[in-house]
């Protein structure tokens, strides 16, 4: 078992606590987290990545309980084990495409996979030296996927990766996420309310506020 | 990829704001550099030039002017004193040695100083070629004079009356260069030294020719000393050796401009000035006292400049702070991403500090460069002897303090932005969008 959560709950300040369904995932599995806007999908993702600490319950990833790690250990653990694709690409605009990817091995102290090959696989091999400001939205999202995959993490978390993309690009992005995570044997968790994603991944849980 | 490279990329990502801040800081530090260099060298130079001179005696007037004109050769002389009074003073038991000077002429702006060989000894000169003067009209030129005017042993030139360029030439007799001095970095570098007699004879001739009214401008070639048309009196004296010690001999009532005195004992410092100032038509001035008075006067200007420099540095610090702080809003996102990628809080803290420090280090280096460059420009453009002798490309230990100031500014400006970077909550940042 790669990822396991038990009786997770979280409370935003001034709001009633949210209870989350338990998750059990093996390497190579895919899972959708569905739910209405504001239901706490992203909060669950943040709990899974250790960016937020739960009110109750625990997250066990690759045999380690996230709540038992110090904040510094957690930062490093996250860098090594988890790749995150955010809703928006959030690339560092002062750096070019390749440099954005090189950040990952530097901060996670983990060996990177072949970054040039990764960019080629994602269809943006020619953009390695480009400024991220010159990328189209679809290209930028693909760079952010490449960044999530850079050190071959065990778990890939994607937060509405397709919400701002047209059909064609959304299709491509989902395909890439699936194929690439299978290639490196990582579990894939996608938060979405996008019908286009549901067509590709059948395994899902629903979050209700 | 490392933190250094990342902060470098951030800096070069907004070149205008970075450049402006670096430049502001550099200006402030440049002023400090210039002040440091000038103060250090001027003080050193002035003390060096006045070394061995306990007191200066000259005609009554401003004591500061007397010192400036006869020790540093920058201001106008106060006037002349009768040689008899000077001789009387030199026989005083409190006086160890007297070096008389005759000032008032120049060649191409370089002052001609009539004196004896004691003056050469006072500054412990070395000759790069030739030797000291022995006959009237033989001169020894300082290193800088020789370099600027391309003079070498055997060259001849005419002196002009007055201490600045453009006054009328003494066109009766050529000076002949008998020696060129090695550069010493002191006032002698910029002087034309000759015997007392040379200065006297130059002026004598001028008067004689004028009265005899045969001073057509072309007559100067005729007046080479060995030609027959010389005025009768005193031609022989041109070939007699000049006095190399003490006062020159003369059958006429002569004058000298100033006397440089060395005391025999400390008592002289108390007694001699009072005696001279009240008992004679001359005045006595102490170089060290007048210099410290001068620096006191200059101090106001120096403090003003220092104030401006400090203000510039503070403004630059604020500029860097504001730039870092402003960019932090967009940057908080970046920082959150970096955290999500595995960066620790400490690394982000270092990242922001590094940026501030990099910025100010560049400012410091540019500032020192600007300071030295500006001084070099100032020196190369200046005819003022005092300024033109400053070396713009020597580096002082105090300049390391400029680096320290700059780093302190960098750290101070980064403290708040860095702390707020440290505090960034990743989840809140990333989900805010």
UniProtKB/TrEMBL annotation, chain A:
Descriptive protein name: Putative ABC transport system ATP-binding protein
Keywords tagged on the record: ATP-binding, Nucleotide-binding
InterPro entries: AAA+_ATPase, ABC_transporter-like_ATP-bd, ABC_transpr_LolD-like, P-loop_NTPase
Domain ABC transporter residues, every copy: 3-209
Gene3D superfamilies: P-loop containing nucleotide triphosphate hydrolases (3.40.50.300)
Recorded GO MF terms: ATP binding; ATP hydrolysis activity; transmembrane transporter activity
GO cellular component, as recorded: plasma membrane
One matching Pfam family: ABC_tran
The keyword Lyase belongs to this UniProt entry's keyword annotation: no
From TrEMBL, chain B:
Keyword flag Transferase: no
Keywords: Cell membrane, Membrane, Transmembrane, Transmembrane helix
Transmembrane regions listed in the UniProt entry: 20-38, 297-328, 348-379, 400-422
A single cellular component GO annotation: plasma membrane
Compartments in which it is found: Cell membrane
Domain of life: Bacteria
Topology versus the membrane: Multi-pass membrane protein
Boundaries of every ABC3 transporter permease C-terminal domain copy: 308-425
Gene Ontology molecular functions: transmembrane transporter activity
Main location: membrane
Domain MacB-like periplasmic core: 18-203
Family to which this protein belongs: Belongs to the ABC-4 integral membrane protein family.
Identification of the protein by name: Putative ABC transport system permease protein
């Amino acid at each position: 078992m790669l990822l396991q959560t038990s009786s997770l709950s979280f409370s935003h300040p001034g709001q009633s606590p949210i209870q989350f369904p338990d998750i059990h995932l093996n390497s190579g599995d895919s899972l959708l987290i569905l739910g209405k806007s504001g239901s706490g999908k992203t909060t669950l993702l943040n709990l899974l990545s250790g960016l937020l600490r739960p009110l109750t319950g625990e997250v066990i990833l690759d045999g380690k309980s996230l709540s038992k790690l110090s904040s510094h250990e957690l930062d490093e653990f996250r860098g090594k084990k988890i790749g995150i694709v955010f809703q928006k690409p959030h690339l560092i605009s002062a750096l070019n495409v390749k440099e954005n990817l090189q950040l990952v091995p530097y901060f996670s102290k983990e060996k990177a996979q072949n970054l040039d090959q990764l960019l080629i696989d994602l269809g943006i091999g020619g953009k390695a030296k480009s400024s991220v400001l010159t990328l189209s939205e679809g290209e930028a999202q693909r760079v952010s996927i490449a960044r999530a995959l850079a050190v071959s993490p065990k778990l890939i978390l994607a937060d509405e990766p397709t919400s701002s993309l047209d059909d064609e690009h959304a299709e491509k992005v989902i395909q890439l996420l699936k194929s690439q995570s299978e290639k490196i044997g990582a579990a894939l968790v996608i938060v979405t309310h996008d019908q286009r994603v549901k067509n590709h991944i059948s395994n899902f849980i629903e979050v209700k506020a | 990829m490392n933190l250094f490279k990342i902060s470098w990329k951030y800096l070069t990502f907004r070149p205008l704001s970075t450049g402006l801040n670096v430049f502001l800081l550099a200006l402030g530090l440049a002023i400090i550099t210039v002040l440091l260099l000038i103060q250090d060298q001027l003080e050193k130079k002035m003390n060096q030039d006045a070394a061995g001179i306990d007191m200066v005696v000259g005609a009554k007037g401003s004591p500061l002017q007397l010192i400036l004109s006869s020790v540093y050769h920058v201001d106008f002389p106060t006037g002349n004193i009768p040689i008899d009074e000077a001789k009387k003073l030199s026989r005083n038991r409190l006086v160890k040695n007297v070096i008389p000077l005759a000032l008032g002429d120049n060649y191409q702006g370089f002052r001609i100083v009539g004196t004896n060989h004691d003056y050469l000894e006072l500054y412990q000169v070395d000759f790069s070629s030739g030797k000291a003067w022995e006959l009237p009209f033989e001169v020894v030129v300082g290193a800088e004079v020789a370099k600027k005017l391309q003079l070498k042993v055997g060259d001849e030139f005419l002196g002009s009356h007055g201490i600045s360029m453009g006054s009328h030439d003494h066109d009766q007799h050529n000076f002949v260069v008998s020696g060129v001095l090695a550069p010493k970095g002191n006032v002698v570098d910029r002087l034309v030294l000759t015997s007392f007699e040379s200065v006297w004879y130059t002026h004598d001739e001028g008067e004689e020719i004028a009265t005899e009214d045969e001073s057509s401008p072309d007559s100067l070639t005729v007046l080479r000393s060995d030609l027959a048309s010389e005025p009768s009196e005193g031609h022989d004296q041109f070939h007699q050796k000049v006095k190399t010690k003490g006062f020159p001999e003369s059958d006429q009532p002569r004058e000298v401009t100033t006397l440089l005195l060395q005391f025999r004992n400390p008592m002289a410092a108390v007694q001699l000035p009072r005696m001279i100032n009240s008992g004679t038509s001359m005045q006595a001035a102490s170089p060290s006292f007048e210099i410290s008075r001068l620096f006191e006067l200059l101090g106001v200007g120096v403090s003003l400049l220092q104030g401006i420099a400090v203000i510039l540095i503070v403004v630059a610090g604020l500029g860097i702070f504001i730039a870092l702080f402003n960019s932090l809003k967009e940057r908080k996102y970046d920082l959150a991403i970096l955290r999500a990628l595995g960066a620790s809080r400490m690394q982000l803290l270092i990242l922001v500090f590094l940026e501030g420090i990099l910025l100010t280090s560049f400012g410091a280096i540019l500032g020192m460069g600007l300071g030295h460059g500006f001084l070099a420009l100032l020196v190369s453009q200046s005819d003022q002897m005092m300024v033109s002798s400053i070396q713009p490309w020597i580096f002082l230990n105090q300049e390391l303090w400029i680096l320290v100031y700059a780093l302190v500014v960098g750290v101070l400006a980064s403290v708040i932005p860095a702390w707020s970077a440290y505090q960034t909550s990743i989840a809140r940042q990333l989900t805010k969008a």
